[in-house]
Write a structure and sequence with these properties.
Radius of gyration of chain A: 33 Å
CATH class of the largest domain in chain A: Alpha Beta
Strand order of the largest sheet of chain A: 16-13-17-21-20-18
CATH superfamily of the largest domain in chain A: MoaB/Mog-like domain
Strand content of chain A: 25-35%
CATH topology of the largest domain in chain A: Molybdenum Cofactor Biosythetic Enzyme, Chain A
Number of helices of chain A: 7
Oligomer: homodimer
CATH architecture of the largest domain in chain A: 3-Layer(aba) Sandwich
Largest interface: A-B, 96 and 96 residues
Chain lengths: 415, 415
C-alpha cells in the first residue's frame, strides 16, 4: 500500500502525450489538424454559373441595347454539355451548372424582356442587361483554390467552415490530435445491464455509464465494453479487447478475495503492475499498470467496484492520465482545489485520508464546506449533488466545525 | 426583400423555448433534469457484504478471542441462498454478495488464522478479529436510498455521478431540457456525397457536414438527411421528413430560377413563409418560414446553396433560433460583436451590407481588422481561417484602411 501522492506521481510519470491519429472527418469537430490538407482538385472545378439565367458569349451582347439569342440547350445544376455555344446562341443555365464551352458570362433571368424569361432550348430570348460586364456571374475555375494547394494548414482547428472546406478538398479522414480512446469494462457476476430489472443478488451496472460520462467530460472518447462475469477466461478476453484502447478502465475485482481475478487477468495479458492499493478512502484497492502497444502503450486502471470509490479513483488517477495523453499543460491535469472551513463536523478515517462529498458556499472572503450525508463507498446520492470532495487528512479522527480543509472541486473538464 | 435587422427580428419573434423532452440516459450527459427521478428500489437492495471474508452471526463471535465456525455455503457476488446460517456456522462471502439470513456481519478474510483463509463450504474456519463491531462490513439495505425516494431532484445537472445514480435508481430515460433537433438537408442534382469523386458537373455536398458541425457547436443535435436532387416529389418527401425536427435547415434551391423548387415544396408541406430574400451579401436568397407541429412548431430555413452564403446565414439566422429554443438568455442569442479598424481597404457592395471573412488582432487599445482574400459566396478558404466576419455597410463602396467597422466574432458557442 502506497501513499496517494506517490500513486498520483506514478500515474503522471507513466502517461505520455498521444501522437496524432487519423479520424473520420465526421467525428473531427473542433479538433486540431496535425497534418495539412491539400485539395484534390480545383474549386470551382469548372467555370460555374452563379445566377439562374442565360449563358452567353461576351461578343454577342449589344451594350446598352437588346440582344436576341437562340437558346440551344437547357443546363440545370448537374447537367453538362460537350457542345460549344455557337455565335448568336446561348444556353439556359441554372446556378451551379458548368458554363458550356464558348460562353463567357451569365445574363440573369430577370433581364429577359417581353415574357421570354421562361424560354427553353429551341426558343429565342430577348435580353437587356444595362450593367453587363464581360464574364459576369461566373465563378472561374480555380479561383477559390487550385488542385494540390494546401487549403487547411497544420494546426487549423476544424471549425464548421473548415469542415466544409475539407469536404470540398476531398478529405474524408483527417490527421488530428484526437481524444484518447478509453475502454470501460465492469466485472462482477452480479452485474446486469442498466436497463434490466435486477433479480435478488443482482445489481445494475451503473459504473459503465458513469465512467463513460466522466471520460467524455474529461475530453476522452468512451468505448463501452459492458460487463463481464467473474470467470477467468471471460475477464482475460475482455481485458485483451480493452488493451486496444489508449486507456483501459476496469471496475470491480481488485480487492482481496479469491474471486479477485482481475490482477491475474492483467498479468496474463502482459500488463505490468505499477501499484496496487493506495492509502485513501474510498478507493483503497485501486490497481494501476501499463502494457506496451505498438510504439505506444495502454494505461490500465483497475478501480474498485463500489460506485463512489470508482468515481473518486477516476477523478484522482484517470483524469490526470487523460489530460496528459491529450497533451494538456500540467495546470490542467487535476481538478482545482480550494481551502474552506467546515460548517459541520466531519468524521475522517484513522489510517487513510478520506475524500467525501460536500457542498461549497462562498462565505465572507473564503469558502464554507458543508459535508453531505454519505453512507460510504456504495452511496452515490451525496456525490450526485456534490460540488466537491472534501479531503479529511489521515489520523485526524472527527474534525470539528470550523476546521480548515482542502476541497477538490468537481465541476469543469480540466481542459 | 427586407433588411437584415428586420429579418433577424422576425426569426427571434417566431422562435420559442422548447418544452422538456424524454431522452435516453446514455445521451443525457450534462443536461438538466426537468423532472425528478425516484428510485425503483432500495439501495443497497439487500444487506450487502462490503469485504471478502466470512458472513457470521454476531452472537457467535468470541470477543478478543478465536472463533471457530463451520462454513456452510460459498457466496460469490451474484450468488444467493435461501437457507439461513445456523448458530455456530458462517458463509464464505465475496464483496457485493447479499448477506444470507441469520448472518449479521462480515469478518474479513485477513482475520482467518492457521491457514484457514481459503476455507470453503464443508470446512471449518478459525477467526480472530480484534476490532470486531456488531454489523461490521455490511451495507444495510436502503441506507443509500429507499424505494420511491427522490434521488435526483428536478433541476439536477446530469454529472457522471448523477448518471450512475440514475442507473441505480432504474432510470433508462430522463426528462430534460434537451438540445433542439435540427434536420439538415441539401438540394441540388449536382450534389454527390462527401466521400465521392465528383464527375464533371458534380459537387461534393459540403454544406451537410459543415452545417451539422455548426449546429453541434451551437448546442443543437444535428440530424443529417443528406442531399436530394432537383425533383419536386423528392424535395417534398425530404422536407416532410425534416419537419419532424424542431428546426429544418435546407440549403440550395431558394434563388430565382425555374428549378427553385424549394419554396414550392415548403408551401406544399404547409410551411408558412415569413420572409424570402434579405438585403445582405452573401445570403440574399435566404428563406424563412414556420409550420405547426403538435402543440409546437418547426422553424424552416432555406439557405442559399453556396457554402459561404450558407454558413453566414446560419450564423445570423439559425444560431439565434437555436439559442432561443434552448432557452438561453438574449445575451447568448447572437455571436459577440466588436468594433475594429480596417488594416487594409475592403470593398463593400453598393446595395447590401457585406459580411466578409477577416482576422482580428489586438492593436493598441482596440482591434485591427485584417480582410482575408475572398472570391465570394462559393469560397470557404477565407472563412475556414477567419476569426470573424467584418460588416461593410450598404452604400459604402470601397472602405479605405483606417475605417472603423463592426466584426462578428465567429468563435464560442453562444451558450
Amino acid at each position: 500500500m502506497i501513499d496517494l501522492a506517490e500513486a498520483i506521481g506514478l500515474v503522471e510519470a507513466a502517461a505520455r502525450p498521444l501522437g496524432p491519429r487519423r479520424v473520420a472527418l465526421a467525428s473531427a469537430d473542433g479538433l486540431r489538424l496535425a497534418a495539412a490538407i491539400a485539395a484534390d482538385g480545383d474549386s470551382p472545378p469548372w467555370d460555374r454559373a452563379m445566377m439562374d439565367g442565360f449563358a452567353v458569349r461576351d461578343a454577342d451582347i449589344v451594350p446598352d441595347g437588346v440582344t436576341e439569342l437562340d437558346v440551344v440547350v437547357d443546363l440545370a445544376a448537374g447537367d453538362v454539355t460537350a457542345l460549344p455555344i455557337p455565335p448568336g446562341c446561348c444556353a439556359r443555365i441554372m446556378t451551379g451548372a458548368p458554363l458550356p464551352a464558348g460562353a463567357d458570362a451569365v445574363v440573369p433571368v430577370e433581364c429577359a424582356l417581353d415574357g421570354t424569361a421562361g424560354t427553353h432550348a429551341g426558343g429565342r430570348v430577348r435580353l437587356r442587361d444595362g450593367r453587363y460586364r464581360a464574364g459576369q456571374h461566373v465563378a472561374r475555375r480555380g479561383t477559390a483554390f487550385r488542385r494540390g494547394q494546401v487549403v487547411l494548414p497544420e494546426g487549423t482547428v476544424l471549425s464548421p467552415a473548415a469542415i466544409g472546406l475539407a469536404v470540398e478538398a476531398g478529405a474524408t479522414h483527417v490527421v488530428v490530435a484526437a481524444p484518447p480512446r478509453v475502454a470501460i469494462l465492469a466485472t462482477g457476476s452480479e452485474l446486469v445491464p442498466p436497463d434490466s430489472i435486477p433479480a435478488h443478488g443482482q445489481t445494475r451496472n451503473s459504473n459503465g455509464p458513469m465512467i463513460a460520462a466522466a471520460v467524455r467530460a474529461a475530453g476522452g472518447e468512451a468505448v463501452a465494453l459492458g460487463s463481464v462475469g467473474d470467470r477467468p477466461e471471460a475477464i482475460r478476453a475482455a481485458v485483451a479487447m480493452g488493451l486496444a484502447a489508449d486507456i483501459l478502465v476496469l471496475s470491480g475485482g481488485v480487492s482481496a478475495g479469491d474471486l479477485d481475478l482481475v490482477p491475474e487477468a492483467f498479468a496474463a495479458c502482459g500488463v505490468a503492475e505499477v501499484f496496487h492499493k493506495v492509502r485513501m478512502k474510498p478507493g483503497k484497492p485501486v490497481w494501476f499498470g501499463r502494457r506496451a502497444r505498438g510504439d505506444g502503450q495502454t494505461l490500465v486502471f483497475g478501480l474498485p467496484g463500489n460506485p463512489a470509490s470508482s468515481l473518486v479513483c477516476f477523478e484522482l488517477f484517470v483524469r490526470p492520465a487523460l489530460a496528459i495523453l491529450r497533451g494538456l499543460a500540467p495546470r490542467h491535469w487535476h481538478l482545482p482545489r480550494v481551502r474552506g472551513v467546515l460548517s459541520a463536523a466531519a468524521r475522517g478515517a484513522g489510517d487513510r485520508p478520506v475524500y467525501a462529498p460536500c457542498r461549497v458556499h462562498a462565505s465572507g472572503t473564503g469558502y464554507a464546506v458543508e459535508p453531505l450525508a454519505w453512507s460510504g463507498s456504495s452511496d452515490l446520492v451525496g456525490l450526485a449533488v456534490a460540488e466537491g470532495l472534501m479531503v479529511l487528512p489521515a489520523g485526524s479522527g472527527t474534525l470539528p466545525a470550523g476546521t480548515e480543509v482542502d476541497v477538490v472541486i468537481r465541476t469543469g473538464d480540466g481542459g
